[in-house]
Write a structure and sequence with these properties.
336 residues; mainly alpha; three-stranded parallel beta sheet; two-stranded parallel sheet; 13 helices; globular; binds tryptophanyl-5'AMP
Length: 336
Amino acid sequence: MPNNKKTIFSGVTPSGNLHIGNYFGAIKQWVEMQNAGEYQNIFCVVDEHAITTLQEPAKLRSKILEVFTLYLALGLDPEKSIIFVQSSVSEHSELNWILSTITPVGELERMTQFKDKSQKQKSILAGLLNYPVLQAADILLYHTNTVPVGEDQLQHIELTRAIAKKFNNAFGQIFPLPEPFINKEAKRIMGLDDPAKKMSKSAENSNNYIALLDSPEIIREKIKSAVTDSGSEIKYDAENKPAISNLLLIYSLFSKKPISELEKEYAGKNYSVLKHDLAEVIIEGLSPVQKKYQELSANPDYIKKVLRQGAAKAKAIASQTMTEVRSKIGFLELSV
Ligand code: TYM
């Protein structure tokens, strides 16, 4: 990879079912940026982040493989991008420790995701608090310039910048300050069961999201049971009609038709007509991805090869950064 290119880095936590919010909010941009050929592209399945909530080991292992395989099915290309699993590159946890020694606990306690998730833990685990430091390590290890993510990750990237600044000031310039990249149209897809909250992998009610691997029957059922707003007008008005606006947005993202065109097409029709057509548009949109996913899953040797290659390429960059970091902070330089 030529290293004069700017670097993009991003990842998904393999802690639930990848859904259309993850795709439109993040992965779609990754594929477009990859194909534009202007960046060094690095994409990670961030399994070390998944274990901040208790995971059943066999399930975690299959989720990691599922998310990795979905990355490929969605268009990430190992010839154009470094695609790997976080836990196969131990430098992530090594840098995490070092960065945690310069990160104030108060900063971590005010993270919105920490506040939400810690409410669900009886005794709050240190890993959950430290989660954004590990995220900063992920990003900084690769001298990342741009991080394509959904809106909910902005606070974590802001913190990453603060940590990078602090490190550079204390020990000398190493890390560029990463910028978030947000797709404004799809920065926050809302839950189908509650349009006041974002669509989420960790939602208890699976009717909250459309998973990328949901079958046509499940998609029809979920869209049918999606909440709607009072009244009957099909109109985009995020404040007063949040549920229908979210459905129109999803429809527009899948069909590539502007929302204004959909409003005209559905003027005078009722919600059930919109829902029926939306389900079919989603099924059609996901069908090639699901087909590709099945093909790839039938070839575990190929997946293993790509996993190994990705890990080796990521490790080569990460270990170089760690050599620099260790030297800056004053650790001994022994080659053993
Ligand atoms: P995660 O796994 O929750 O989400 C993965 C990506 O999907 C985006 N996203 C959404 N976008 C629009 N609408 C939604 N409803 C929606 N839900 C999720 C997220 O913004 C994200 O871009 N902490 C991160 C993973 C991570 C990471 C990193 C990301 C770890 N290290 C380094 C970037 C760089 C997370 O849990 O994302």
